[in-house]
Amino acid sequence: MQKRIVVLTMVAILGLVSYFTVRLMNNEATALNDSFTKEFIVEEFVEEFVEEFVEEFVEEDFHLFESKTGQYRMLFPNEFQMISEPPEFYGRQGDYYEHWAAQIFNEKSNGISYYFTVKFREDEGDFHEIRLNRMLEDNSYNGLFEELVTKDKIISHGSSFWDSNDPRGDKKDPNKYNANVFFGLIVDTNSHRSIVINYSTICYKEELGCDLNSDKEYEFALKLMKSIEFLNP
């Protein structure tokens, strides 16, 4: 049943890709040009130079995103915009739950759509293993993943290949196929907070080649995961 839900979700993403590709074929579509996305970009008051709010600098091609829960920050890539409609693409419950999605709204010359989702939770107890197993069941090939431990986070991450033409929706070995699904569970070691990130690269125009550098896309997904900073509650 759960696998069927995952397949239907991926099909829905394909439909969303087609819709926004037609609606927003605009080379200037970036994070700061979207009013909804801009609400989450961190700004600071710089009185020494100009008496106005300006964006806090992080690094080229990225902005600093802060959750409406006030619980975490992370890098947000400039080429992406958050999806505000339909409403199920953004949701929040107090300061303990939030989910959102973002996508590149430009038509890429290689025929690939780039899309990622973020789901934050603060649990009452330790649900690390439950969150991990659920993520692997939905995204991994045979439960394969790697673990990265830092001073304040545990990042469980992996990749797989999803064939949009496969009605079963089975994930395939990323060592044999060009991985197009990248996933990670980021756990705060000082609390019961966690974030799941799913990054998908979907071919929607095969005639354009759909050339994909899986290693580069994996690095991009890991960059987002590593950038997550859980804020003091």
Describe the structure.
- The chain has 233 residues and is an alpha+beta fold.
- It has a single domain, classed as Sandwich (Jelly Rolls), CATH 2.60.120.1690.
- Helices cover 22% and strands 34% of the residues.
- It has four helices and 14 strands.
- Strands 5, 6, 7, 8, 9, 10, 11, 12 and 13 form a nine-stranded antiparallel beta sheet that branches. Strands 3-4-14 form a three-stranded antiparallel beta sheet. Strands 1-2 form a two-stranded antiparallel sheet.
- A hairpin with a 3-residue loop joins β9 (146-149) and β10 (153-162).
- It starts with a helix and ends with a strand.
Compact description:
With 233 residues, this protein is an alpha+beta fold. Helices cover 22% and strands 34% of the residues.
Gross morphology is globular
The overall pLDDT, averaged over residues, is 84
Number of strand segments: 14
The main β sheet shows up as: 9 strands, antiparallel
Beta-strand portion reads 25-35%
- Say what the CATH topology is: Jelly Rolls
- What is the distance, rounded to the nearest whole angstrom, between the alpha carbons of the first and last residues? 36 Å
In N-to-C order, the SSE pattern is HHEEEEEEEEHEEEEEHE
Low-confidence stretches: 4-9, 11-27, 45-53
Decide which structural class fits the backbone: alpha+beta
CATH architecture descriptor text? Sandwich
Report the C-alpha radius of gyration, rounded.
18 Å
Helical region count? Answer: 4
**The CATH class:** Mainly Beta
**In which range does the helix fraction lie?**
10-25%
Oligomer type: single chain
Number of spatially distinct domains:
1
